[in-house]
Every structure is written in C-alpha cells, then in structure tokens.
Amino acid sequence: MAFTIAIDGPAAAGKGTISRAVAAHYGVAHLDTGLLYRAVGRRTLDGVAPLEAARALVAEDLKADDLRSPEVAQAASKVAVLPEVREALVDFQRAFAARAGGAVLDGRDIGTVICPEAEAKLFVTASAEVRAQRRLDELRAKGVETDFDSVLADVRERDARDMDRADAPLRPAPDAVTIDTSALDIEAAIAAAIAAIDGRRPSSGAG
Ligand code: CDP
C-alpha cells in the first residue's frame, strides 16, 4: 500500500535530517523536493530561463555537488515563486509519492499542494535564530566561509519569499502535526516525528 509522508517547513528547520531518518525507519524512499528547486535555480545562475530549466530537469541534476550553497538557495527561492516552474515539477513529485511501498517527501507545499491526500503530514519548524545557527554549522562543516548574520539574513529573506508568494505559500496543512525543533536534539526530533506518523498508520487488527 502506498503510504505517503509529507514533511514541510521553513529553511534549516531539520526537515532533511528528520525525513532521511523517517524514510530509513519505515523502509521507504525519500525525495528532498528542495533539490528540484535548487537544481532549477542553479541553471538560472548560468543564464538558462527558469521554465526551460524546470522542463529540462532530469534526476541526474539532483546529484550536482554545489546545490547546497547559499547562492543556489536564493536562486531556488526566486524560481519557486513562478507558478509555471512549480507546475512543471508537479508530475515528478506526485509520481514519486505514488511509489508502491510508500514514500517520504519533504519541502514547502507537500501536504498542501503536492500530496494533500498524504496519510501523515508534519510541519517541522524552529526559531529563525536556531535555524540560522544550524545552517551556519552545516555550511562551515563543508568549508563555506560565512557568518551568523548573513546566514540569518538569508534564512529570513527566504522565509518571507516562501510564505508570501501567491502560489503554494509555505504554511502547515490543516491536518499537519507541527514539531518545533528549537529545543529538541536530533534524536528527540526524530522520535517526535515517528510518534506522530505512527498515530496515522493503519494499526494491524484494529477496526
Ligand atoms: O534546505 P533548505 O530548507 O534551506 O531549502 P530547500 O528545502 O532545499 O529549498 C530551497 C528553496 O526551494 C526554498 O527556499 C523554497 O523557495 C523552494 N522550495 C519550494 O518552493 N517548494 C518545495 N517543495 C521545496 C523547496
């Protein structure tokens, strides 16, 4: 049976870590949909038009090693406001969600637009300062030279663009369980996610 888990939330809230752990726990596939927007944004930095880049996207593009840079993140959130770009990426995401055996998709609009029928929906968030510190640690670990204030500014700018856009704005689905990871370590955040998802899984023998 296809059991779809939708995990949404703002930048650097812990979605990626939680999504990978949840996918491993249930033995299902995982798609980080931010990579689709990052790959499109990456091409626009080379001068390719956003819609052309979105239509030409292939799975291989998600493996490029510079997709995690702050410049690409900004480019991604700029192409992500364009309805025709979002539309071009819908089929790929829905096909992934429909995999036999189930799937975890993480992003901004999975529970609201891409998979409104998902069996389990989480909205993972944290304060902007906590998210900026986590992203700073990640970037520094990769050798990227940056500082707290510029990472915080980047996070806030993308939050505003993601929440204020007309098409598929970032917001929790009405039936999403919100997990605020500001004061949670990784293990506690993963445990909270699994507890919330277990509550939505068909229990054997019941009913
Ligand atoms: O890793 P981080 O949370 O910083 O960002 P991401 O999930 O890789 O997403 C990068 C950008 O893509 C976001 O700022 C959004 O503008 C956009 N995005 C989106 O619009 N819809 C999605 N489902 C996923 C990402």
Q: Can you describe what's shown?
A:
With 207 residues, the chain is α/β, with parallel strands linked by helices. The protein has a single domain, classed as 3-Layer(aba) Sandwich (Rossmann fold). The chain has helices spanning 15-26, 34-45, 50-55, 70-79, 83-88, 90-97, 110-114, 128-141, 148-164, 186-198; strands spanning 4-8, 29-32, 103-107, 120-125, 177-180. A five-stranded parallel β-sheet has the order 2-3-1-4-5, sandwiched between helices. Bound molecules: cytidine-5'-diphosphate. Cytidine-5'-diphosphate binds next to helix 2, helix 4 and helix 9. Cytidine-5'-diphosphate (CDP) is lined by residues 11-12, 33-34, 37-38, 73, 76-77, 80, 107-109, 158, 162.
Q: Helix coverage percent of residues?
A: 40-55%
CATH topology: Rossmann fold
Q: What is the CATH superfamily? A: P-loop containing nucleotide triphosphate hydrolases
Please report which band the strand proportion falls in: under 5%, 5-15%, 15-25%, 25-35%, 35-45% or over 45%.
Answer: 5-15%
Oligomer state of the chains in this structure: single chain
User: Number of domains in the coordinates?
Assistant: 1
How far do the termini sit from each other?
18 Å
Give the distinct bound molecules: cytidine-5'-diphosphate
Assigned CATH class: Alpha Beta
Q: What's the pLDDT, averaged over the residues?
A: 94
Order of helices and strands: EHEHHHHHEHEHHEH
CATH architecture identity:
3-Layer(aba) Sandwich
Number of helical elements: 10
Characterize the largest beta sheet: strand count, sense, and whether it forms a barrel.
Answer: 5 strands, parallel
Which consecutive residue ranges, at least 5 long each, have pLDDT under 50? none
Radius of gyration: 17 Å
Strand segment tally: 5
With strands numbered from the N-terminus, the spatial order across the biggest sheet is 2-3-1-4-5
